[in-house]
Automatic annotation (TrEMBL):
Protein name: Iron-sulfur cluster carrier protein
Family annotation (Gene3D superfamilies): Fe-S cluster assembly (FSCA), P-loop containing nucleotide triphosphate hydrolases
GO molecular function terms noted in the UniProt entry: 4 iron, 4 sulfur cluster binding; ATP binding; ATP hydrolysis activity; ATP-dependent FeS chaperone activity; metal ion binding
Role, per record: Binds and transfers iron-sulfur (Fe-S) clusters to target apoproteins. Can hydrolyze ATP.
Native source organism of the sequence: Anoxybacillus kestanbolensis
Domain named MIP18 family-like: residues: 4-53
UniProtKB keywords: ATP-binding, Hydrolase, Iron, Iron-sulfur, Metal-binding, Nucleotide-binding
Binding site for ATP: 100-107
Subunit record text: Homodimer.
HAMAP family: Mrp_NBP35
GO biological process, one term: iron-sulfur cluster assembly
Signal sequence, renumbered to the chain: none
Domain of life: Bacteria
Family of this protein: In the N-terminal section; belongs to the MIP18 family. In the C-terminal section; belongs to the Mrp/NBP35 ATP-binding proteins family.
Length: 335
């Protein structure tokens, strides 16, 4: 028959689904009683939230572990963790990067904004939530894959940013041919099955538009903030307004608008050419009643063959400096 110590050891590695911490870390196992005659193990467990579908999943895990270890029957009671424990957990700021259409540089903005926040000393994670059009690993020059430790996936770290992407789980750039419900399940796994550790910011590079993944993010992360990326062209800004309107209707705060490809500046003359027009970002920001966080010119990052990351701008690069200014504005705005 199991002892109390063995029961605790069996259960202490289970994660609280809301706090993303083990039972050992949260002190969740509050009581263990053993009835040797009946083979009954009774356990009282405290979770951050009770009466949820996640609690049912925890219940099934606990019962299965104890029965596999020899318990004939299991009695299980749940309680809620004290407010102090829930309050002191380091919940990151969720920041979704969205756009109304593809091709406006949303993923480029996502990776450089994540790197800029990390350069400012923040603990940053990045989810490549564009399941069909994943590109973050290639943009950041990531060649390694995540590893599995226990029941958790350990994200790959690059430039101080922890990264997870669908691109890590397909071979040879194979296409992902899934229907909508599968996308939501994969996105949920990126939250639940990845060991993010302590983060200040968790950025999500969303697919363009207002489809299934964007809707799932709005449902899973009701406190998520959003940044809308557009180009200065009136049509791009018009389409991007739909993504912003979706955020507003689902009570997500739009932190601001970033205008990408604002102009091309000649290295010879310093003259600016507004190839895609002017004013789209400012107009969109006014329409969404938010700030224009920055205007990013066209320009190529400086490539380093020894440490290749084709889309990451150096901290001293003119465009890299714009990203740093945008990151500082975001930190100040969300403080």
């Amino acid at each position: 028959m199991l002892t109390e110590k063995q029961v605790v050891e069996l259960l202490e590695t289970i994660y609280d689904p809301f706090l993303k911490k083990t039972f050992k870390e949260t002190g969740a196992i509050q009581e263990v009683k053993i009835n040797k005659e009946k083979g009954l193990v009774s356990v009282k467990i405290a979770l951050a939230k009770t009466g949820t579908a996640e609690q049912l999943q925890v219940q099934q895990t606990v019962v299965q572990r104890l029965k596999d270890a020899g318990a004939s029957s299991v009695g299980l009671r749940f309680a809620q963790l004290p407010f102090e424990e829930e309050r002191t957990t380091n919940e990151p700021i969720y920041l979704a990067i969205a756009s109304g259409k593809g091709g406006v540089g949303k993923s480029t903005v996502s990776v450089n904004l994540a790197v800029s926040l990390a350069r400012l000393g923040k603990k940053v994670g990045l989810i490549d939530a564009d399941i069909y059009g994943f590109s973050v690993p290639d943009m950041m020059g990531i060649t390694e894959r995540p590893v599995v430790r226990g029941e958790k996936i350990i994200p790959v770290e690059r430039f101080g940013v922890k990264v997870i992407s669908m691109g890590f789980f397909v071979e040879d750039n194979s296409p992902v041919i899934w229907r909508g419900p599968m996308l939501g399940k994969m996105l949920k796994n990126f939250f639940d099955e990845v060991e993010w550790g302590e983060l200040d910011y968790l950025l999500l590079d969303l697919p363009p538009g207002t489809g299934d993944v964007a809707l799932d993010v709005h449902t899973m992360l009701p406190t998520s903030k959003e940044i809308i990326v557009t180009t200065p062209h009136p049509t791009a800004a018009f389409v991007a307004a739909r993504a912003g309107a979706m955020a507003v209707r689902t009570n997500h705060e739009v932190v601001g608008v970033i205008e990408n490809m604002s102009y091309f500046e000649s290295k010879t003359t310093g003259e600016k050419e507004y190839i895609f027009g002017k004013g789209g970002g400012q107009k969109l920001a006014e329409e969404l009643q938010t700030d224009l966080l920055g205007q990013l010119p066209l320009g190529q990052p400086d490539w380093n063959d020894e440490d290749f990351a084709p889309s990451i701008y150096g901290e001293d690069h003119p465009i890299g400096k714009v990203y740093m200014d945008i990151a500082k504005k975001i930190i100040a705005k969300l403080r």
